[in-house]
Amino acid sequence: TTPALVPYSKHLPAQVTHYGGYYTKTDENWPLIGPAGAPGAFVASGLSGCGTMAACATGELVAGWIAGETISASNRLLGLERYADSELMRVLNDPAVSGEL
Question: What is the pTM of this model?
Answer without folding.
Answer: 0.71
